[in-house]
Every structure is written in C-alpha cells, then in structure tokens.
Specification:
alpha/beta, Ptyr_pPase, 4 strands, four-stranded parallel β-sheet, single chain, Rossmann fold, 12% strand
Length: 165
C-alpha cells in the first residue's frame, strides 16, 4: 500500500477533495491523507457538499497541519502531492523517508472570495481525472517510484560517506 499526502495551504477544499477521491478509488493500493501549512481548522462547507453530491464519504475528513505528517511517529509517506501553487512554493518540512513529490496545480475554488458551488465542482472534476489516471498506473510503475526513492537514498548515503573520509 502506498501512502499519499495531498497538501494545500488551508487544507479546506482541494487537498480534502483529493484525499476523499483517492481513498474512494484506492482498491487497497493507496491510503490518502491531506494537510496544509496554514490549515483553516475546518473543512469548507461547499467541499463537503460537493463530496456528498458525488457519493463520497466525508467521514473523518478534517483540516489539519502538515506537522502531523513530519514527525517520527507519522505514517511513512511514499508520495506527496501539492494541489495549490502557494503550497508548491512554500518551504516544506523535511519528510521522513524522502518521499517522491509532485505538483498538481488546481485553481482555488475560493479565489477572490467566491462562494459559488461551481468552482468546487470543477476542482473535484480535475482531481477526479488526475486520480483516475494515477490509480490506473500499473503497480510496476509505482514500484519504480519506490526503487528511484531508494536509489536516491543510497546515493545520498554514499555521498555522505565519501565526504566523511
């Protein structure tokens, strides 16, 4: 099983939607989480409305800090995906295990103070398409990501050993 963390600054809409979508589509291959650098402390009501309208469970969804996932007692992350451009540019914590990172820029449904449902539905649709493509990857491609991660770690250890001589 691969652990995937979706990050968006406020962790109230896009990252929450991605978490719910991937957990729904995982077929036991993935465990999704979400977090933010400056979480609002609550999931936006329109996010919950859109998820429920799509037939997705909202149970257990909450706005949380990325600090929950950077400590030694946090679940090991295999992949971290930022879903907003602001989070992409932020200085992230050092993630244990050096997970693979990616950026899926999704426009903020709350841009310019917008409170309409349509942008939340658009975010859901864009994330749904990306998650569908991601979950259709053959396991050997995902194993390659793990292999690449391990090889990068070995290279870093080799480099550190060479420097200490």
């Amino acid at each position: 099983m691969f652990n995937v963390l979706f990050i968006c600054t406020a962790n109230s809409a896009r990252s929450i939607i991605a978490e719910a979508l991937l957990n729904n589509a995982s077929n036991g291959r993935f465990q999704a989480f979400s977090a933010g650098s400056a979480p609002l402390g609550h999931v936006h009501p329109k996010t919950l409305e859109v998820l429920k309208g799509a037939g997705l469970s909202t149970e257990g969804l909450r706005s949380k800090s990325w600090d929950e996932f950077s400590g030694s007692d946090a679940p090991h992350m295999d992949l971290i995906i930022t879903v907003c451009d602001a989070a992409k540019g932020e200085v992230c914590p050092v993630w244990p295990g050096h997970p693979v990172t990616a950026h899926w820029g999704i426009e903020d449904p709350l841009r310019n103070g917008n409170e309409e449902i349509r942008p939340f539905r658009e975010a859901l649709r864009y994330l749904e398409n990306r998650i569908r493509l991601f979950t259709e990857l053959p396991m050997e491609k995902l194993e390659h990501l793990k292999l690449q991660q391990h090889m990068d770690e070995v290279a870093a250890l080799h480099h550190e050993a060479a420097l200490s001589k």
